[in-house]
Design a protein that fits this description.
The chain is α+β, with helices and mostly antiparallel strands and about 500 residues long. Helix 2 packs across helix 12, helix 5 packs antiparallel against helix 6 and helix 6 packs antiparallel against helix 7. Bound molecules: adenosine-5'-triphosphate.
Length: about 500
């Protein structure tokens, strides 16, 4: 069985070999931290997005979805604070010229200490880091790195520059004329949230939405990440699923707790056990937040953030009101305790923000299993992706035992019956054993084999991915069995 780091590498190779995820423009040696989803990866990703959309939008009468543009007026990013604040403290090694995010460098050291059995020391350095970052004490951070003798993994030296801030937004020119003038500079959005904030009034008025209500969105975001070598965990182009929930000022903590619990429920509904998740409460709060936490999953590379839940106060709407000089307020005609309407105010916001790609990586990490099936007589093994049925790229493989004797015709007719309802895969090449193994590797929960007996009794063999059990069932029950298993 693979170790954790081997397991991570094995998952990456598996994704490439079986058409889930490829490095971008690979024929030109790839592009750092950019990936393409292949035929099965894109199905998995789409199923995850649909599931999120269904649980957040379809099942909540007070949440609606939008699809805002990636390009936004440049003032958006001045108002939101991204031009001035969306940066990470970085440090360069003077010998290797390699640049590191200081928190990653220190976390790496803490992990090393933990592996060596120095749990206490590991916790102390992380605590110290949190405190120093919260105070923006960059000299202190540099001292922490030096005192703990943290070295660059390339040069092996501790010859560090000072700690500096590095903005993570990509910029490009807008319109036909290329120029260095700031006026033409436009950013690729680093988060989808701002598309929601600038549309707050449009949606609230056109949808006659009453507070509390939410606006959800799925879309691309771009960040010029410096240390980006963890497969699809940290990409320069990625996708987010965000929901901004607008509430009455003063009620934000109650809603923050509500969404924390709701989102954890959603994670558990993916069939992942509670022991693989944990909350991480932020000590250093972003400039807009009055409370924030992450939901972390135990990846093969350790516990890492999949989703952030942030109480963003009225920061964003207030800033957009200030920069646009347009009133962005809500009139609340509900009555307060003294019987007067709450009146006009800028709503507070609790947001849930989850990365699509990190969720894909989480589902794949949880699903990937290498099994030794050897018996005394023969060696055997398989790789199986135990992806939940509703998320699996292919739900049903339809396999005629041989390519003749009328079996393909029966298989084709089943295929035509099922494919409008869910994703099916038809295959008549290779032995049945090999075809089963291939479907296991793609995470297909059900295979159905049509054999000569089927012609006599209209029964087929259904084979279950997780248990490898086989059962004879009537042909006309196949569609319903799969459909029922897809329900969550
Ligand atoms: P990190 O600390 O890991 O950089 P973050 O706290 O900056 O993440 P948020 O700004 O809260 O992330 O973004 C919300 C979600 O978007 C994250 O929980 C993550 O799932 C996803 N995300 C953020 N950056 C990336 C990235 N570079 N690649 C893939 N997903 C990302």
């Amino acid at each position: 069985m693979a170790t954790d780091s081997n397991r991570f590498q094995a998952i990456i190779s598996h994704c490439k070999e079986y058409g889930f995820i490829f490095p971008s423009s690979e024929i030109y040696d790839g592009l750092g931290a950019v990936y393409d989803y292949g035929q099965w990866g894109s199905e998995l990703k789409k199923n995850i997005k649909d599931y999120w959309w269904k649980s957040m939008v379809q099942l909540h009468e007070n949440i609606v979805g939008i699809d805002a543009a990636i390009f936004m007026h440049p003032t958006t990013w001045k108002a939101s604070g991204h031009v001035d604040n969306f940066s990470d403290p970085m440090i360069d090694n003077k010998d290797s010229k390699k640049r590191y995010r200081v928190d990653h460098l220190i976390e790496g050291k803490a992990e090393e200490l933990e592996q060596q059995g120095h749990q206490d020391q590991s916790e102390i350095i992380l605590k110290e880091m949190d405190t120093l970052l919260a105070e923006n004490d960059f000299d202190g951070i540099k001292k922490l790195i030096e005192n703990n003798k943290i070295i660059c993994s390339v040069s092996g030296t501790a010859n560090w520059t000072d700690v500096r801030q590095f903005n993570l937004m990509f910029s490009t020119e807008f319109g036909a004329v290329s120029s260095d003038e700031e006026d033409n500079k436009i950013y690729l959005r680093p988060e989808t949230a701002q598309g929601i904030f600038v549309n707050f009034l449009n949606v609230q008025k056109s949808g006659r939405m009453k507070i509390p209500f939410g606006i959800a969105q799925i879309g691309k975001a771009f960040r010029n990440e410096i240390v980006a070598r963890q497969f699809i965990f940290r990409m320069r182009e990625f996708e987010q699923m965000e929901m901004q929930f607008f509430v009455r000022p003063g009620t934000q903590m109650q809603w923050y707790e509500h969404w924390k619990a709701q989102r954890m429920q959603w994670h558990l509904s993916l069939g992942i056990p509670a022991s693989k998740y944990r909350f991480h409460d932020h000590v250093k709060l972003a400039h807009y937040a009055d409370a924030a936490c992450d939901i972390e999953y135990d990846f093969p590379i350790g516990f890492k953030e999949v989703e952030g839940i942030h109480s963003r106060t009225d920061f964003d709407l207030k800033k957009h009101q200030e920069f646009s000089r347009k009133k962005i307020q809500y009139f609340d005609n509900d009555l307060d305790e003294s019987g007067k309407p709450y009146g006009n105010y800028i709503p507070y916001v609790v947001e849930t923000s989850i990365g699509v790609d990190r969720t894909v990586m989480m589902v794949l990490s949880e699903a990937y299993e290498e099994q030794d099936l050897s018996t005394e007589e023969k060696k055997d093994s398989r790789v199986v992706l135990k992806i939940p049925v509703h998320l699996a790229p292919i739900k049903l493989a339809i396999l005629p035992l041989v390519k003749k004797d009328g079996l393909p015709e029966i298989a084709r007719s089943l295929m035509n019956d099922c494919k409008p309802v869910f994703n099916c895969f038809y295959e008549e090449k290779d032995t049945i054993g090999k075809r089963y193994r291939r479907m296991d590797a793609l995470g297909t929960p059900f295979c159905v084999t049509i054999d000569h007996q089927t012609k006599e009794d209209n029964m087929v063999t259904i084979r279950y991915r997780d248990t490898m059990q086989q059962q004879r069932i009537p042909l006309d029950q196949v569609k319903n069995i799969v459909k029922e298993a897809m329900d969550v």
